[in-house]
Structures are given as structure tokens and as C-alpha cells.
Amino acid sequence: MGDNLFDAIDDKIHAKARLGIMSLLAIHGECDFGTLKQELHLTEGNLGNHLKVLEEAGYIRITKTFTGKRPKTLCSATEQGVRAFRDYIEQLEKIIRMTQFPHS
Description:
The protein is of the alpha+beta class. It is built from five helices and three strands, in the order ααβααββα. It starts with 10 loop residues before the first helix and ends with a helix.
């Protein structure tokens, strides 16, 4: 971590779509691909790319199953992902607190 408070912001989470994904997983524990797509208003390709970034970082687990004959992709946060998301939120809270009482 650098000396700058903003250096601690995790770029893998900070992108709007990935922040949305991690937030929904924090709320629901597990979400299917369709729900994430609908809630975040993303195309399949765009969502797939963001999921890949989070999966490669070790922040989410992707499980492919079937409901009847239809494929179903389920996403859930890993322990590492939960920790990273909590750290990310803590850093944002520090920044928010810093801006509430500006040094004059």
C-alpha cells in the first residue's frame, strides 16, 4: 500500500460494474448470471468480462450447473473476495470521513 490514501483503492473492484457485482453478492450471497445482467443493465459480453476479472483475482467463484436442460451460471464471493470488498468499503469510508471535515 502506498502513502496515498487513494492507492489503497482496489481497481479490480472499483469499476462500476464490478462494484455492482460485488455489492449484489454481498447482499444475496449468490447470484445467477441472468440476475446480475438484469440488475446491472449489462450485456452478456460485458458482464462476462467483468466476472472474468473478479474470478481471476480470486474474488468470486463461478459454478456452471443446469436447471433441467438449461445451463445456469452461479456466482458467489470467495473468502478472499469478501475480505477485499470489506477493505474496499473501509477505504471509501476513510475517504468520505476525510472529506467531511476539510482542513482549512
